[in-house]
Amino acid sequence: AFLTIYLLLFKENAIKSYSNYILSTILLLEIYFVAIYLLIYTGQINQIPHLYKTAAPFNFLISPLAYLYVRSVLLNKKKIEIIELLHFIPFILVFINYIPFFLMPINEKSIIVKYASDHLTYALKYQAGIIPESFLFYFKILQAIIYLIIQWKLIIDFKKENINNKNKST
């Protein structure tokens, strides 16, 4: 992922397009998710408990960013439109939901993190904010499915339009 980001954005002849920035952001988020997961799985999160749950809100960015990426590639978009900022509402709500946990004193947070790293299923049960963790878990899956359907519709419509345009020009 780091190599891809380098090739997309930092190589001497890299085309620094809006689409490449979106793809690079997605890849960076995926790297962060894997790193946090590995810290939790190995128990190393206990050394840096402030990182616990920090990846959770960003999970709600992947699907909208993937949609914006596909849209930007197919429709040659150069920037985000104001209305497209609505896609980031779930991320904002989940981030706000976790603020009490993020601001929790380190001694309390360390106890929760230790228990969660020792019992991985506890991570889905612990109520870190107002919104139940089980709801966030299922909402993330639903969001991914909805965005996947929207992306496929976008691709199919794009293909139909290009076939129609091709037939008109011949």
Commentary on this structure:
By secondary structure, the protein is mostly helical. Helices cover 70% and strands 0% of the residues. It contains 7 helices and no strands. It has helices spanning 2-10, 18-42, 59-75, 89-102, 106-118, 122-125, 133-169. It starts with a helix and ends with a helix. The mean pLDDT is 89.
Instruction: Estimate what percentage of residues fall within beta strands.
Output: under 5%
Quote the distance from N terminus to C terminus. 42 Å
- Encode the helix/strand succession as letters: HHHHHHH
Q: How much helicity do the residues have?
A: over 70%
Evaluate the radius of gyration.
20 Å
| Structural class by secondary-structure content | mainly alpha
The total strand number stands at 0
Shape: elongated
- Low-confidence segments, given as residue ranges, are none
Question: Biggest sheet, open or closed, and with what strands and sense?
Answer: none
**Could you report the average pLDDT, rounded to the nearest whole number?**
89
Number of helices: 7
For the structure shown, list the relevant keywords.
mainly alpha, single chain, 0% strand, elongated, 170 residues
